[in-house]
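Consortium newsletter contribution from the modelling node. Members have asked for a concrete example of what our holo predictions look like. Here is one, prepared for the adenosine-5'-diphosphate complex that several groups have been discussing at recent meetings.
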Amino acid sequence: MRDVTAFQQRHQVGEGTYGSVFVYSDKVTGEIVALKRINTKAEENGFPLTAIREMKILKALNHENIVRLKEVVTSKDSGDIPKDVFMVFEYLEYDLTGIIQTKEIKIRADHIKSWSHQLLKGVQYMHINKIVHRDLKASNLLINRRGELKIADWGLARSWNPEMNRLTNRVVTLWYRPPELLLGCMKYSTKIDMWSVGCIIAEMFLREGLLKGNNESHQLDLIFGMMGHPSTADWPNIHTMCPLWKNYEPSNGNESLPRKLRDEVKTRLPTVAMPWMTPHALDMIDNMLVHNPDKRWSAAQALTAEWFFDIPMVKPASQLNMQF
Ligand code: ADP
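And here is the predicted structure:
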């Protein structure tokens, strides 16, 4: 294992939940990299589990739309005992939240289509490999000057199989969290990531978060307000799957709750605020924001959406104008 002194520190870029991220350059090759320092001191139980998971999963994944973990290095005290551990990543200049929030940056239809396609390819690859990310959001999508989008921050990711039935539902940042998790489901699937993808793609059009809840019940209200209430006709196993659903059922003293059913697609999203939105784009987003995870589109299905075959056709990253 190489030592961190193989790199020259340049500046800090981000503060993560379990460490800080710095830009370094490789002293031999001059390559610019991002080093994430794992904060072991703040951890009572030694090396943080999230970091171990992130390293294990990233070592197994190899895809152009997933941030590459190049190596792991340590720093040493005067002795030989490792003091700090750093994950060395390829460096990407932007994150999607920064791009969305910088009004001077003109995001056009071809950016949105290409980044959506790249995101879906990365998600399809991880789901084929039975990994669920569990924290997809605009700020965890990194973009480089070549227009390539890569999924980052794998601290909440885990391997998944359909038999798992006691998974924690306290995952996924609130605005991107699907209804099954908000309703207490512990036997969920890779489809939780697809709800987040639907929110992220809508956010690129809207240039702000789609469902910006303040707490879990507010988030559900926003979902029900926009997408309608789930029904047992649409989601037959909602009772067994979601322990908290009983609190929202009309038969449980909630008769007075205004029941809103799923509206027609085009009335649901605030399309006036989305200059590049087309009926096919809307149709794809709509199929990801489906309450019942079994009916929600997978990444493989979304990649065949008509929108990607409409003119302008989806462009490779190399053809995007990144002169912001
Ligand atoms: P945490 O898991 O601790 O939240 P992240 O992996 O999300 O940490 O990293 C925190 C921040 O550091 C990110 O939001 C991003 O701004 C920056 N960052 C992380 N990885 C890279 C990278 N490979 N290139 C450039 N910036 C990065």
